[in-house]
Prior knowledge:
single chain; 408 residues; mainly alpha; three-stranded antiparallel sheet; 16 helices; 73% helix
Amino acid sequence: xxxxxxxxxxxxxxxxxxxxxxxxxxxxxxxxxxxxxxxxxxxxxxxxxxxxxxxxxxxxxxxxxxxxxxxxxxxxxxxxxxxxxxxxxxxxxxxxxxxxxxxxxxxxxxxxxxxxxxxxxxxxxxxxxxxxxxxxxxxxxxxxxxxxxxxxxxxxxxxxxxxxxxxxxxxxxxxxxxxxxxxxxxxxxxxxxxxxxxxxxxxxxxxxxxxxxxxxxxxxxxxxxxxxxxxxxxxxxxxxxxxxxxxxxxxxxxxxxxxxxxxxxxxxxxxxxxxxxxxxxxxxxxxxxxxxxxxxxxxxxxxxxxxxxxxxxxxxxxxxxxxxxxxxxxxxxxxxxxxxxxxxxxxxxxxxxxxxxxxxxxxxxxxxxxxxxxxxxxxxxxxxxxxxxxxxxxxxxxxxxxxxxxxx
Length: 408
């Protein structure tokens, strides 16, 4: 199978560029003529001798927010009756160059006769299991546009929640950095200019000033700071390496996530956020017609927390053994009792997806309230801490001056 690059003109007289896999140049030309009005250029890609593969192998990194926007656009165009390959080729002219490249590969797969879900599944770095499962369910049920709309809704909720979390911590972080910068300027630049005056006048330095001078001298001593810096750099490198490799070690990832959930306030907030995302995804997949066991298998992959992932895995196995959704979740404590009772009602009334979505919305609102409370707690705490630190530095700097004036 050879890879060909082409340049063609579509029905709207727009020039389209892309790649196509075909056994021969003649077959590639025939496939292109079925899709485009005129083929301008068709040539075979050169294969790298060192790797034995074409130039493009792995998917580039794509912004989740950009993918959510493209998903909404794709759903709208499919609903309007535009063919899938034309939709994809149109979207390859968007602002995100990386996503344009990925969508060109997906379009190439569709033009070769593959389903949209299969073509997207060949780009796992961009389209995760939830995305592919939703698209596949839409193709099977004949409601691809509705499946993509629900998927876009889900992705937009995730993007909104991420921005909400970032905005909550942005203001306290800025305050902390600015205060630290001002204190560092005073301690490391202004205070050293004042000390020789006090020493020359024979002023006895009080203990706050001596402590501050000790900290400054220690921070300026390379014999002390260089080893500390090396140790910190090694420790940071080890921590990052362990965290990245924890994804491949379920036991280690479980221990890390379990301890994260034990953090006061923050642990509960993160768990609520994960549960909200899981419930919204579950409702979306159920609406798209995905089987319940496949839904739970997908939820395990997107839970984001190994503790919750393990509970969902146990619940799925219990369901395979004949347990109901409510009973499976209850046995393994996957969700709080309020959530479980609403799931039970939804299961009994045959309206499980709607009930799960309601719970997800309730949890999302709870997360927003928790974020507001956390922000209202963080700001005064940071201000109190920085105020105490600034006050100590001011006292340490001006106490010798007061003693000097008293002795005049």
